[in-house]
Amino acid sequence: MSPYAEAYDQITDKSFARFKHAAEINRDLTHLSRLDNFDWQPPAIEVIAKRRESPEFIFRFLSDLERLAYGLFLMRSDPSERIRLTEGFSLPFRPVTTCSLSSRLSS
């Protein structure tokens, strides 16, 4: 199975299995799966597939992605706006800070 297919299975089943941070990662995946869109899945698949050996990085990434995704959900952003705002979540990882998110939202 390819790393991307395995990452997709782990995301949809919420079954990330590593010794460290597995419970927290699966909790974040459960929360993300409750959203009414799937825009969060491609960046999550990319990070899990490429950074599988770094569960700390995956945990931090998914926690940040969850905050961003729920913020966009609460603001009822349209799909184009969500895609534009999540561009910073592709590899290489560049964290979106509160200041950079605020400046993006005000433009």
What does this entry look like structurally?
This protein is mostly helical. It is 64% helix and 0% strand. It is built from 6 helices and no strands. The chain has helices at residues 3-13, 22-33, 41-50, 55-74, 79-85, 98-106. Helix 1 crosses helix 3 (41-50) and helix 2 (22-33) packs parallel to helix 4 (55-74). The protein is globular. The model is unreliable at 91-100 (pLDDT under 50).
In short:
The protein has helices at residues 3-13, 22-33, 41-50, 55-74, 79-85, 98-106.
Residue share in helices? 55-70%
Q: Number of DSSP helices?
A: 6
Taking all Cα atoms into account, the compactness measure Rg is 13 Å
Class from helix and strand fractions: mainly alpha
Query: What is the succession of H and E elements?
Result: HHHHHH
What fraction of the residues are assigned to beta strands by DSSP? under 5%
Task: Give average pLDDT, whole number.
Answer: 80
How are the secondary structure elements laid out?
Layout: H1 3-13, H2 22-33, H3 41-50, H4 55-74, H5 79-85, H6 98-106
Helix pairs in contact: 1-3, 2-4
